[in-house]
Amino acid sequence: MICENPIQYDAFASGPTPPLLPPLDPPLARPPRVRKPPSRLGDYHCFCTKAATNHLAPPHPGKSMLPLSNLSSSHSHFTLSLLTSQEPKSFHQANKHLHWREAIQAEISALRQNSNWTLVDLPHRKPVIGCKWVYQIKYKADGTVERYKARLVAKGYTQTEGVDYFDTLSPVAKVTTKFICVCLRVLKMVQKVKFASYSNLSMA
């Protein structure tokens, strides 16, 4: 008998069967990552519970890592007032509370009383600069709220230099001003040197 397929012949041949290969192990799954708090927080008391009160904004980032036990009683009261009180980030949030509405009305009344603006026609092809409300809570030394402060500021970051404005009103000296001051100082020093040289020659 001639078998063209030697593999098929070996399968029907008598004799000891070859050892079977062990099944391949399934790919190991990635073990779960063990999460540990950072070592730098070992000296702090981290809070694991959420506040029950509703805040106008997300909790303060330092609330979970501030060591309140190392503070004095007055400083601790002041710090707790900062952590529990949140300042609104938009007009819609501030308009829901009476104390912020009163602060806004006080700011508008002060602007009208001081005549901080003048109504003029918009120049041709010039965009209107918007404004926004900025809110801040002022505290006393014992941590109690002194007053709620609201300020109306212009969105100056929407302007383009050379298009919307040319000169800036800033207390910082410009480079050209510094250069002029240096030149004037050098001229005064040269005049002093010349005067000293002339005095020495006249005395000789």
Number of helices, where a helix is a run of at least 4 consecutive DSSP H or I residues: 5
Query: Unreliable stretches, pLDDT < 50, 5 or more residues?
Result: 7-12, 51-55
State the strand order across the main sheet: 1-2
- Regarding quaternary structure, what we see is single chain
**SSE pattern:** HHHHEEH
**N/C terminus separation:** 138 Å
User: Which strand-content bin applies to the residues?
Assistant: 5-15%
Estimated helix fraction: 25-40%
Radius of gyration: 39 Å
Main sheet specs: 2 strands, antiparallel
Total strands: the figure is 2
Structural class: alpha+beta
**Mean pLDDT score, rounded?**
74
Shape category:
extended
Task: Write up this protein.
The protein has a domain at 86-116 and 129-159. The chain has a two-stranded antiparallel ribbon with strand order 1-2. It has helices at 6-12, 73-84, 91-94, 98-114, 175-203; strands at residues 131-139, 145-154. It contains 5 helices and 2 strands. With 204 residues, it is α+β, with helices and mostly antiparallel strands. The chain is 34% helix and 9% strand.
Please sum up the structure shown.
With 204 residues, the protein is α+β, with helices and mostly antiparallel strands. Helices cover 34% and strands 9% of the residues.
Which descriptors apply to this entry?
204 residues, two-stranded antiparallel sheet, 5 helices, alpha+beta
Write the layout of secondary structure elements.
Blueprint lengths: L5 H7 L60 H12 L6 H4 L3 H17 L16 E9 L5 E10 L20 H29 L1
Antiparallel strand pairs: 1-2
